[in-house]
Amino acid sequence: MTEKKIAAAGKGLGTAAARGGRIRIPTLFYAVALLFVVGLVFSLGNGNFITGYNLSTIISYAILLLLVGLGQMCAVLVGGIDLSVGGVMSFVSVSFVIVVQVIGYWAYPLFILVGVLVGYLNGILLTRIRIPSFIATLGTGGIFMSLAMIVAPVPVNVPTPKWGYLDIFNGTFLGMSNVVFIGLLVFLFYFAILRFTATGRNIYYVGSNIRMSWMSGINIARTRNLAFILSGTGAALAGIMVSAVQYGCNPYVGSSYILPSVAAVVVGGTALTGGTGGVFNTLFGALIMSVLQNGMNVVGVDQYFQQSILGMMIIVSVALTFDRSKTPVIK
Fold it and tell me: How many other CB atoms are there within 10 angstroms of residue 26's CB atom?
């Protein structure tokens, strides 16, 4: 009954849009076109851009950003944002490096659970205490960033005899790095949740129209909690991966992924207003961000100017994907 009501509402909105004569191009098309254009520009600017080594570098960073971005995407889809991903990444990274030496492979599920619990905490702050997600996750992110510095004030490394525990990420399969396959599995996990489960459909419904969702009987608090749990899980997985591939970590590593994770979601075409986007958008968004950062270094763009280019990309992406029907018209 719930899905029928929302489907009817969505059909009505679609009909209204059709009557207005406006045809919306799927945001994923923008992301694919943008990736092609950016890649073409950098390949023309420097022939070394399309070498095997450089493409491998781009893919490695894109996979790491994808893990954080997939989680961030879930928070954005319900109309929120998760600024705690950097703190979670840092805390999980340094703690994992220390704990994996003691308990071995059990460190993997342990720190995935840490991400789940942090996501649940963020959800509770949003739904029960009713603190806006921007403020709530900014606070929890700062807390866990501080905890990371307390746990490891300086960079920590995994001793060589313990490297075997990290082969889950650093090994190869069919001639390809395990990182690629793990990234694919995580991608399929989020895709399956959003595409084939009631939770995934509810995430879209709540982000599209929270009032209509509530009237249709959807548990808003539970849906938002689950979205932030998925966000914390993605950040934890990224924290584990970055420690494993580097055989160590520093307590500041997560700070460089906070804004890029949001940018990957937005540039890929997931609307900040919620309800629009998905895993493929985030995949292409992560690839675009990775190509941009790598390409600007390869062609020699001044470091101080790179942030300006990224800023312009984000503004253009938001302009193309922002749902203006959710904001009041000011005349």
Answer: 11
Distances (CA, A) of 129 to 12, 118, 135: 34, 15, 12
Segments making up each domain of the chain, as ranges: 34-322
pLDDT tier at 14, thresholds 50, 70, 90: very low
Query: Model's pTM, two decimal places?
Result: 0.87
Rounded CA-CA distance 60/57 in Å is 5
**Torsion angle in degrees (nearest 10) through CA of 321, 322, 326, 330:** -140
Residue 78 to residue 272: CA distance in whole angstroms: 9
CA angle 241, 245, 251 (to 5 degrees): 70
- Which residues make beta-bridge pairs with 249? 156
Reduced to 3 states (helix: H, G, I; strand: E, B; else coil), residue 274 is coil
Contact in structure between 289 and 260 (CB atoms under 8 Å): yes
CB 301 within 8 A of CB 323: no
Q: Which of 139, 133, 1 is nearest to 78 (CA)?
A: 133
Q: Which amino acid is at 180?
A: V
Q: Measured between alpha carbons, how far is 80 from 228 in angstroms, rounded to an integer?
A: 9
Q: Judge whether residue 22 has pLDDT over 80.
A: no
pLDDT tens column, 190-201: 999 999 999 999
Would you state the structure tokens that stand for residue 45, as one six-digit string?
């600017």
Residue with tokens 């960073």: 61
* Runs of H (alpha helix) within the chain: 2-19, 27-45, 52-77, 85-103, 107-127, 133-151, 167-170, 178-196, 198-208, 210-215, 220-246, 258-267, 279-299, 303-321
CA-to-CA separations, 122 to 62, 168, 289, in angstroms, rounded: 26, 29, 26
Instruction: List, for residues 239-286, the tens digit of each pLDDT value.
Output: 999 999 999 888 999 988 998 899 899 888 888 888 888 899 999 999
| Residue 177 bridge partners (DSSP) | 172
Length reported for the chain = 331
* Domain 34-322 class, CATH top level: mainly alpha
Quote the tokens at residue 84.
């705690």
